[in-house]
Design a protein that fits this description.
Layout lengths: L3 H7 L7 E4 L2 H8 L6 E5 L3 E5 L4 H7 L4 E4 L6 H11 L4 E4 L6 H10 L3 E4 L1 H9 L3 H21 L9 H14 L4 E2 L4 E4 L19 E7 L1 E3 L2 E2 L2 E7 L4 H20 L6 H14 L11 E3 L6 E5 L12 E4 L2 E4 L3 E4 L2 E5 L4 E3 L11
Parallel strand pairs: 1-5, 3-4, 5-6
Antiparallel strand pairs: 1-2, 2-3, 7-10, 8-9, 9-12, 10-11, 13-14, 15-18, 16-17, 18-19
Helix pairs in contact: 7-8, 9-10
Length: 354
């Protein structure tokens, strides 16, 4: 899988002769390969440069690009200069959000062309997933759902947050994951009020909520989900908070479709939490895009007034966090369509009491 033709087709719109792709996610999007290399895309041809560690795999896996191995004598920069000269590139786009100032200054000095910030070219393409990308994310999510089913059999009083996190990771790898999308979050009891808490030595106790946020990569694409479960009988307040979060998520999902501004999706979920009296305890956005990276754009938050594109894959993850007491977050991943959205996450969402 690669997206070289899609990138090439956008060059004229951005007034570019070529696009220079140097980031790891950009490289994978462009050529479908992780090789610590760089890509030069023009309307007529594409060139890919990588070193001896990756050259054989690149030659076997990459199609549609001329592949050249870098050496100590002829590094990436020298090959890029050669391509710029041979292909008569005058305006070269680059991913400004991923490039350091020192690298930019180095390239500006070395390249016989104008460097133009153009991260939006690739970012815009990556925002709307195609069928092949969505299929890979479905596989990643199926692995994640299976790991959730397994962890329900493992959680009990006395288990530590670290043990639960380790089990989740082991199971996702066992079920076919390439690696984790991110370090899992497992927080229990009063630690549940920390949205991005780090799993520690705290042992789960009877009466706790346990929140687990985790995901894996399959075929280079991420899954992401969160579930909060009760260990032993929850209090009435815990049930009320859980149900509020669930209803907020359902409201957000009902508002999710292509063409709707991200802030409107966020507002639909936030309204439910505010009306229940917990508005001050929901501090983060409703959702973020997911793909090659676990956090992509566009986002479904209060700051995004742009219409969300059809094909965007966006998390749905409202939460309520009561400091020092407990927290609840429920997260699914959704694919935006013209008329609504498809929920990729299949794990149950009604409160589970273990």
């Amino acid at each position: 899988m690669n997206h070289l033709s899609q990138i090439a087709a956008k060059l004229e719109e951005y007034g570019l002769d070529a696009m220079l792709v140097t980031s790891e996610p950009g490289e994978f999007y462009a050529v479908g390969f992780h090789g610590e290399g760089i890509v030069v895309v023009t309307r007529g041809e594409c060139r890919y440069f990588t070193d001896s560690r990756y050259i054989e795999s690149a030659q076997n896996q990459i199609t549609g690009a001329q592949i050249t191995m870098t050496t100590t004598a002829v590094p990436h920069k020298a090959l890029a200069v050669k391509a710029i000269e041979e292909l008569k590139i005058k305006k070269l786009g680059f991913e400004e959000g991923y490039m350091t100032v020192s690298t930019f200054n180095e390239y500006t000095k070395a390249f016989p062309c104008e460097l133009i910030p153009a991260q939006k070219l690739i970012g815009g393409l990556r925002a709307a997933k195609d069928a092949e990308e969505i299929a890979l994310m479905e596989q990643a999510q199926a692995i994640t759902d299976r790991a959730f089913s397994e962890i329900l059999q493992f959680i009990r009083p006395g288990r530590t947050e670290k043990e639960i996190a380790a089990k989740i990771q082991y199971d996702m790898l066992r079920f076919g994951a390439e690696k984790m999308s991110f370090d899992p979050i497992v927080v229990s009891g009063p630690n549940g009020s920390l949205p991005h808490g780090i799993p520690g030595e705290r042992q789960v106790q009877e009466g706790d909520f346990v929140t687990m946020d985790f995901g894996c990569k399959y075929g280079g694409y991420c899954s992401d989900m969160t579930r909060t479960v009760a260990v032993g009988e929850p209090t009435e307040e815990m049930r009320r908070v859980y149900q509020t979060v669930l209803e907020a998520q359902k409201a957000g999902i009902a508002a999710t479709r292509g063409g709707v501004p991200g802030k409107d999706i966020d507002a639909a979920a936030r309204k439910v939490i505010e009306q229940a009296g917990y508005g001050e305890y929901f501090g983060h956005g409703y959702g973020h895009s997911v793909g090659i990276e676990i956090h992509e754009t566009p986002n479904a938050n209060s700051r995004n007034d742009a219409p969300m594109p059809v094909g965007a894959v966006v998390s749905a993850e409202p939460g309520i966090y009561l400091p020092g007491r407990f927290g609840v977050r429920i997260e699914d991943v959704t694919v935006l369509t013209q008329t609504g959205c498809i929920v990729l996450t299949k794990s149950p969402k009604d409160l589970i009491v273990l």
